[in-house]
Amino acid sequence: MAGSGGIRVCFWGVRGSTPCAGEQYARYGGNSSCVVLDVDGQAPIVFDLGTGLRPYGESIGGAARPYRGTMLLTHMHWDHIQGLPFFTPLQHPDSLVNVYGPRQGNTDLGDVFGGMMQPPYFPITPAHLAGDIRWHSLDDDDLPIGEAKVRARYVRHVGATLGYRVEWNGGVVVYISDHGQGCGEPDCDDYVPQEVLELCDGADLVIHDAQHAPDEFEAKRAWGHCTNEYALLVAHTARAKQLALFHHCPSHGDDMIDSMLRSTQQISANTGGPDVIAAAEGLVVMVGGTQ
Ligand SMILES: [Zn+2]
Ligand SMILES: [Zn+2]
Description:
Elements: E1 7-13, E2 34-38, E3 45-47, H1 53-59, E4 68-72, H2 78-81, E5 96-102, H3 109-116, E6 132-138, E7 142-145, E8 148-154, E9 162-168, E10 171-176, H4 194-200, E11 205-209, H5 228-237, E12 242-246, H6 254-271, E13 275-278, E14 284-287
Parallel strand pairs: 3-4, 4-5, 5-6, 10-11, 11-12, 12-13
Antiparallel strand pairs: 1-2, 1-14, 2-3, 7-8, 8-9, 9-10
Helix pairs in contact: 5-6
The protein binds zinc ion (2 copies).
Residues 16-17, 33, 77, 79-80, 177-178, 247 line the site of one zinc ion.
């Protein structure tokens, strides 16, 4: 990888709503949302702090070594934050994590998180971690993080939720984990908001909510998620190169995800792209650069 440019994208948690375990999840995995971007010689950028954050922390040495990195949090739902208390690198006193996430009215983002990480919900508070967590509120912002260009835009979900675009080292990765079609105004199901196109425009890889199969959607419309076919519409409209179906429903075992993947690939092949994959725990994708 050295000298080739691009971004190494590693999927540590691909499940939506709640982590789950069992034979039916063996291939795609049961940890909730967490994706890590790495570029040689630079601090990592992490999308979301779901339970996939725990094995990521273990893989880089746990509490044995200091960690410096940026975490881009989409929203405060459990499946996106529950990994942070178990991110053992924060047990090292020299660790420092900058967490960016959607503004929570007049309340500090860290205080909102602290409301969940305290007794009686959890035995310790963030202050008990030896490392330092710094919280930063975002709106529709464009900002540099190290050498990366980061764009945040609000997307349609239940509660304040951001999607992210990261342009870094010759690659462009977009992360829209939770996004509901037909939710908000205008509410037609095939409408792709301008903010979403600003995130996805020409991206190398779009990681997108694909929680529901089309025949499940109507009953779950209010959940703020979308179908695999809407995820494809977003990526196709934005002329993205590759789509990763993400935030798999806990009621979908591996075979169901295979079937949704095949059907999405078929529609995409008939309509002019993009390439489609289904995110799986442990999957590594190189984007941008010369591979
Ligand atoms: Zn979610
Ligand atoms: Zn959510």
